[in-house]
Amino acid sequence: MTIHIINAPFEPWQEVANYQQAYLGQMGRFGATACFVGTMRDFNEGENVQAMELEHYPDMTEKYLGKLTEEARRQWPILDSLIIHRYGHLQPNEPIVLVAVWSAHRAAAFKACYYLVEELKASAPFWKKETLATGTRWVESNTSS
Amino acid sequence: MAITVKFFASLRERLGCTERQIDFSEPITVAEVWTLVGSGQPISENVLIAVNMEYADAETVVRDGDEVAFFPPVTGGGRL
């Protein structure tokens, strides 16, 4: 169960492959890998977005995601999970977040991955500041889905 | 007794402050902390609170050495 909060671009599929090889490669016990990758859009609320600053609350973010992971483990028989989340300066098309969950069967992997993504996005202490052609703005309200 | 108060995102910019230390003589609530650091205005429903990096509310009592944080709603998107 691993959580990384990083300030540099990352390649999510390579991270999944590396993690699987390092921590699960020889196990032969998982039959399902569920992955979610969130990517930065170049539009929001009808405006073109040129770049974004993602601020977070260091330490609380890791602590909160750790609690979510523990809750997911309590609810579903998952074997392992990997969360990687960016902060700092982002450009459109860059991955923001990866959530990967390994389990023996697909139901637990799907459900735990969905739970982690939804709870992370609803409550983890991250804030977006968008750069538009006309200046910058904080994203103040939650956008659905 | 002393606590650390932190501000994030638009609230940090609006108050022009990232972090403050405040001293007090008896345990106080988060609402009283806000009064001390928030220009005397009542705490808004749009301000979220964490005490020692756990979500808390305005009635939570803070003690010596605690870390209190105030911040706007997070912007990861609503639940589906």
From TrEMBL, chain A:
Signal sequence segment: none
Pathway named in the protein's UniProt entry: Cofactor biosynthesis; molybdopterin biosynthesis
Record key words, sorted: Molybdenum cofactor biosynthesis
Catalytic activity: 2 [molybdopterin-synthase sulfur-carrier protein]-C-terminal-Gly-aminoethanethioate + cyclic pyranopterin phosphate + H2O = molybdopterin + 2 [molybdopterin-synthase sulfur-carrier protein]-C-terminal Gly-Gly + 2 H(+)
EC number per UniProt: 2.8.1.12
Listed GO MF terms: molybdopterin synthase activity
Keyword match Lyase: no
Superkingdom: Bacteria
Coiled coil: none
One of the protein's GO biological processes: Mo-molybdopterin cofactor biosynthetic process
Residue ranges crossing the lipid bilayer per the database entry: none
UniProt family annotation: Belongs to the MoaE family.
Assembly with partners or alone: Heterotetramer of 2 MoaD subunits and 2 MoaE subunits. Also stable as homodimer. The enzyme changes between these two forms during catalysis.
Protein name (database record): Molybdopterin synthase catalytic subunit
Taxonomic placement: Bacteria, Pseudomonadati, Pseudomonadota, Gammaproteobacteria, Chromatiales
UniProtKB/TrEMBL annotation, chain B:
Keyword Nucleotide-binding: yes
Entry GO CC: molybdopterin adenylyltransferase complex
GO molecular function annotation: nucleotide binding
Highest taxon of source: Bacteria
Pathway assigned to this chain's UniProt record: Cofactor biosynthesis; molybdopterin biosynthesis
GO biological process: Mo-molybdopterin cofactor biosynthetic process
Keywords carried by this UniProt record: Molybdenum cofactor biosynthesis, Nucleotide-binding
InterPro entries given in the database record: Beta-grasp_dom_sf, MOCS2A, Mopterin_synth/thiamin_S_b, ThiS/MoaD-like
A Pfam family the protein falls into: ThiS
Similarity field: Belongs to the MoaD family.
Name of protein: Molybdopterin synthase sulfur carrier subunit
Species this protein is from: Nitrosococcus wardiae
